[in-house]
Amino acid sequence: MPYVGKTNPLLDKLKIISDEEAETVDYVVCVPASTPSRFTDDFFGDCCKCGVKVRYRWHMPRKPKKICLECAVKEMEAERGTK
Fold it and tell me: What is the reported pTM?
C-alpha cells in the first residue's frame, strides 16, 4: 500500500456526507454513457449543462442534477475564477 503511514492528498480533500445531505448537493458528476462498465444496472441520463448522455450508478443521489465530468470541471474552474 503506497500510503501506509502517510496521508493521501486527494483523500484528505474528500468530505464524507450522509445520504440525506447528498440529496441536497448541486450536482452528481457522471461519466459519459459511452464509458465501458461492468455493471448491467447502471442508470442513464443527460448532462444538465451540455446534454450529453451520461451513466451513473443506481445508488447515486436522485435529486441533484446530473453533470458530465467535462462540464463539472468547467463549473469548478469558473467557481474558482480560473481557466
Answer: 0.77
